[in-house]
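In response to reviewer comment 3 from the previous cycle, which asked for concrete evidence that the modeling workflow produces usable outputs, we include below a single protein chain processed end to end. The sequence was submitted unchanged, and the resulting structure tokens are shown without manual editing.
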Amino acid sequence: MGKASAATAQVPLRWHLHKICFKVPYLSQPVGGFCLSTLYQRNTSVWALNRLREDALPRLIDDLKGQHEEGIPENICDEVKAAHREILDLASTIPDQALFRRSILPLLERYCDLYIQWNDIDGNDDSARKRRAELVKKIRKARLALATQVRKNMHVLENELDISLIDSMYKALNGIVQAAPKLFEKLSGAVTRYMNRREDQSEDK
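The workflow returned the following structure tokens.
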């Protein structure tokens, strides 16, 4: 690789997307004024929502998979349920006419409901382990459906959401981490990454 190519390879992808969107009008405003580079701009509502769907929720599922043999202690289950209900309550504050309420909230409710079902399975016998394993697969599918819908409607969601709403959802997830940090190590990493980046933005102001 030549010097020019090596230098180009070191430039962040979000910089290239910004340049492409700037130079090509139909990429600059492909749908409703949404530019691809917005996905890579930290501390915007779109960036925060992407962190939730691409990092926090998948890591939460990864932690669940590791607990399918024994399940989670009842007192921790209560914390997990409370966090998911808090997330749904936060999402429900978005106006009824918003696309989020019509297209995203039902999928989020499905995801949270499956997670709560997983929590409610008692015991560590073969039947309980099998049911937990089956529900993890359903939770993954629900998460994928949610992520797909978010991705398809990013240009609308950009204008509907406030980053403070996603901040509050992360605080709810952090409640799970604080209740059982060893059980939710992967989720802990996702929450820490998000909060550190938000703190970096605050310091830059």
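Confidence is low (pLDDT under 50) at residues 2-9, 11-40. We consider this sufficient to address the reviewer's concern, and the full set will be provided in the supplementary archive.
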